[in-house]
Amino acid sequence: MPGDQVRERVPVTRLGAAYRLGLVRRWLRSWWLVSSLHRGSPIGSRRCATIAAMASWRDMTSERAQADLDGLLSAVLPFAEQQLTAHGELWPFGAAVSADGETLLVAVDDDLGESPQSETILTGLYEVARARADDQRAVAFVADVLARGTYAVRVELEHQEGVALVVLLPYKRSIFKKTVALKQMSVSAAEPKVWSADSPLP
User: Which of 32, 48, 83, 100 gets the most CB atoms within 10 Å of its CB?
Assistant: First the structure.
């Protein structure tokens, strides 16, 4: 989103080998996230699995589209919180709902190297989603950003029906306690990155 500054990662050498991008990719494929993707795990009252703010977008979308986007948000936020709590930062990642309703991970090519820039990862995620647009109903892109002077988890949500939203979840991390205090979620309209307004639906 304009005005949001994507936070760059601390050099890998300062984080230690356990947080190399290759290992993060394996974590993204782990049982914890995959099972939560299929369960649609709850994410707490302040991070309600349904996007409660900006309710007007629901008037323009089908129940299936609403369920797809709510489900994606429920899938990606727990993993983002887990990574922030454990490591104090977050590599960009994505998820998608396939044409038959299955929630899947969106990964970038391994040839980006072990410590690419966050913007490079996001660009790769956008490109992968666009290339698979005909086989997907909805997508989510997650990044750690600095928005209006506050650190926040940003989730860009988009559906083939034409709705595009950005969810910001500000947080404050305690360095000594290794905990993350999550604040009030905000939702606003966004520019589509995968499906343009005039793209025909499958």
Answer: 83
Give buried/exposed letters for 86-95 (b at 16+ CB in 10 A, else e). ebbbbbbbbb
Phi, psi angle pair for 201, to nearest 5°: -80, 150
Identity at 150, one-letter amino acid code: T
More confident site: 26 or 190: 190
The sign of the dihedral angle between the CA atoms of 109, 115, 116, 118 is: positive
Please tell me the pTM assigned to this model: 0.73
DSSP bridge partners of 17:
none
Cα(120)–Cα(176) distance, integer angstroms: 31
Contact 135, 168 (CB under 8 A): no
The total number of residues written for the chain in this structure: 202
d(CA 142, CA 169): 11
Tokens of 130: 């666009």
Q: Is 127 buried (19+), middle (13-18) or exposed (0-12) by CB count in 10 A?
A: middle
Lowest mean pLDDT among 54-58, 90-94, 146-150, 186-190: 54-58
- In 88-201, alpha helices (H): 118-131
Which amino acid is located at 37 in the chain?
L
What are the residues facing 94 on neighbouring strands? Answer: 106, 141
CA gap 39, 130 in Å, rounded: 26
90-97 average pLDDT score: 92
Helices (H), 92-144: 118-131
